[in-house]
Amino acid sequence: MSDAYVHTVAVMGTVVSFQVVGHGATDVERAARDDAIARSVAWFQEVEATCSRFNPQSELQLLSTQIGVAVPASPMLFEAVRFAVAVAAESGGAFDPTIGLAMERRGFDREHRTGEVVHTRIAAGEASYLDVEVDDDERTITLRRPLLLDLGAVAKGLAIDMAARELQPFENFAIDAGGDLYFGGRNAVGQPWSVGIRHPREDSLLETLHLSDVAVCTSGDYERQTDAGHHILDPRGGGSANAVASATVLAPSAMVADTLATASFVLGPIDGIALLERHGVEGLLVTPSLDRFSTSKFAPRHARSSSI
Fold first, then answer.
1. Is residue 58 part of a domain?
2. Whose CB among 42, 47, 219, 288 lies 3.0–4.6 Å from 261's, allowing a Cys bridge?
3. Nearest alpha-carbon partner for 98 in 75, 130, 76, 73
């Protein structure tokens, strides 16, 4: 059995855990491991500082003050917005990053560190992803109408991916960002990592998966609630999406898994699974009546419990 080192930090409104197997036998190994974890934490902090809609000084919030202007964007914000807009187009608007103001109106408006309520001073109006122009040549973003981007379904996955890149040289590691996960290599006993898919209505597991070198992200209607409903909105209708109770997606990238989990959740079981299969990723969608829909190759093992 190999030793496993675990480092935990609170960032991006959740608790992020980094686990590295081995690489602690010498001072040199420990120093290299600790430096890589520090860089991983820094990526989460940078993604939050760039993409948060709760920080008035974030690059994303400053973008919202420049309507009709082609704004040069940092590589991080540019790639996050470009990916979000691409998924919006692919999902026919079921996923749409321009829901920031709608999220605020429904009570998802508190800065997680201070609890302060954030109200963005933008004249509310009809807007969609079609009002976001991304110029690949000039690396600029133009908001054609007053709107506020919400990159919550993109940013955490992006941070996980950047952290995974830092930990890749160690081969065997796991990143858990509030239930959004990436697993590299094997666990401390040399086996694929185990992760349980939560039952959306009970304190139990639906499935346990045994995985290596893959991201796993779940969107659930039980995660964040206000009086207006849960936090996963259907941008086409404005209310909480209700055809699915949970959507779990496996993909090589956490940003892909996180965003497609949200998109498939909103699309519903039939169109959601079609979206996942079209993009060659695996997933399981569970309806409020607990019917299961999955991609053709999704064949997890059942178990009573799981751990990373």
1. no
2. 219
3. 130
Expressed as residue numbers, the domain containing 109 is: 66-149
Residues 212 and 304 in one domain: yes
What CA–CA distance (Å, rounded) separates 5 from 19? Answer: 6
Q: Which of 159, 187, 215 is the last residue of a domain?
A: 187
Most distant pair of Cα atoms in the chain: their distance? 59
Q: Is residue 59 part of a domain?
A: no
* pTM metric for this prediction: 0.90
Query: Quick check: 76 and 49 in contact, CB under 8 A?
Result: no
Question: Number of H helices and number of E strands within the chain?
Answer: 7, 15
Place of tokens 């209607």: 221
Residue range 240-293, pLDDT digits in tens: 888 999 999 999 999 999 999 999 999 999 999 999 999 999 999 999 999 999
Burial grade of 121 (CB within 10 A; 0-12, 13-18, 19 or more) = exposed
Q: Per the structure block, which two tokens stand in for 57?
A: 């000084």
145 and 156 both lie in a single domain: no
Q: How far apart are CA 225 and CA 228, in angstroms?
A: 8
The span from the first CA to the last CA of the chain, in angstroms, equals 15
- H-helix or E-strand spanning residue 283: strand 282-286
Angle subtended at Cα 258 by Cα 106 and Cα 37, rounded to the nearest 5 degrees: 110
Question: What's the structural domain count of the chain?
Answer: 3
